[in-house]
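Exercise 7. Given the encoded structure of a 338-residue chain, write a plausible sequence.
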């Protein structure tokens, strides 16, 4: 187990543990606590590590790497970030300027040595777990990709029914508006005007020829979230044939949504009209929030609120808006919502 966060000095390393099967097979890496206050993945990974160490589980083949605490500074502080958001601008930096740059310089080669990434997260407000899915196969654009079929097959077997796509394109559209934002004074906020700042762990993984999935396991303090994370790891390992477990059945009842817009908080006095939760329905013309000057923030169309963050700093993402996607995921389209 890790020491009490309050007794820790500023971290100088990050811990990863690898299990090497004696037969060739997939190479899977699982991350927990990319954001320091999202600990369900940490708990699930430590649980699995204990089972592997005691011989209760045994790796059949391939390579399994577990990183219980990916951002130890943020974890030590029990906060989302150490000095900035590790899950943005995730790349190798020749002249690292902050703690997260240094962590990324160690993690990027580690991810590149694997085929598959499972990144375990949680979110601010109550709601059911969901999966973030990458793009369809494409040869150009923001995120060229050729392993969508493999990624979709894994997504259907992790457990949650809700799937969200369209992250990087939506983030890039937000960047186009954010460039002129006068609040962009801090480094983390200035970085958010760079399209590369939208690249996180899974986007980096796809750029290295692999594929990756972000699983949002529930609200931060939901006691069920660690179990969702743990079961997802087992499902991934079973689906990939790395553990002697029955292959998990694919979910037949998918709800597939597409992010279409990101709205930033401009001022500390910007307020939501009510305590939104992720995937609350919103109707065209419905007020979502109010700016500091009294101007309403209205939904331009029917859709869903995603990642509402009432504590967002000015110049950063306040909420996302999603709509029902027409995409078929592993041969299944979104169910009809009432």
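Solution.
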């Amino acid at each position: 187990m890790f020491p009490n966060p309050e007794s820790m000095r500023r971290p100088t390393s990050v811990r990863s543990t690898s299990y090497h099967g004696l037969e060739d097979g997939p190479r899977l890496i699982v991350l927990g606590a990319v954001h320091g206050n999202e600990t369900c993945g940490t708990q699930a990974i430590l649980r699995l590590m204990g089972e592997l160490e005691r011989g209760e589980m045994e790796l059949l083949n391939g390579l399994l790497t577990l990183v219980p605490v990916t951002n130890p500074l943020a974890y030590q502080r029990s906060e989302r970030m150490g000095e900035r958001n590790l899950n943005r601008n995730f790349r190798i930096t020749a002249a690292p300027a902050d703690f997260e740059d240094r962590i990324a310089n160690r993690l990027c080669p580690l991810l590149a040595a694997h085929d598959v990434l499972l990144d375990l997260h949680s979110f601010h407000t109550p709601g059911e777990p969901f999966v973030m899915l990458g793009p369809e196969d494409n040869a150009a654009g923001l995120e060229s990709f050729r392993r969508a079929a493999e990624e979709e097959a894994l997504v259907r077997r992790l457990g949650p029914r809700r799937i969200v796509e369209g992250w990087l394109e939506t983030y890039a559209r937000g960047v186009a508006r954010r460039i002129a934002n006068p609040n962009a004074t801090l480094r983390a906020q200035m970085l958010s005007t760079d399209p590369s700042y939208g690249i996180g762990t899974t986007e980096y993984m796809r750029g290295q020829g692999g594929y990756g999935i972000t699983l949002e396991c529930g609200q931060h303090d939901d006691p069920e979230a660690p179990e969702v994370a743990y079961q997802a790891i087992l499902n991934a390992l079973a689906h990939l044939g790395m553990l002697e477990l029955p292959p998990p059945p694919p979910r037949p009842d998918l709800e597939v949504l597409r992010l279409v817009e990101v709205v930033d908080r401009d001022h500390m006095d910007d307020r939501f009209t009510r305590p939104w939760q992720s995937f609350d329905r919103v109707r065209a013309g419905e007020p979502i929030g109010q700016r500091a000057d009294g101007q309403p923030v209205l939904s331009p169309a029917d859709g869903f609120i995603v990642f509402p963050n009432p504590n967002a700093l000015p110049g950063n993402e306040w909420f996302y808006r999603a709509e029902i996607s027409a995409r078929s995921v592993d041969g299944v389209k979104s169910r009809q919502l009432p």
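Remark. The longest strand covers residues 255-265. Students should compare their own answers with the one above.
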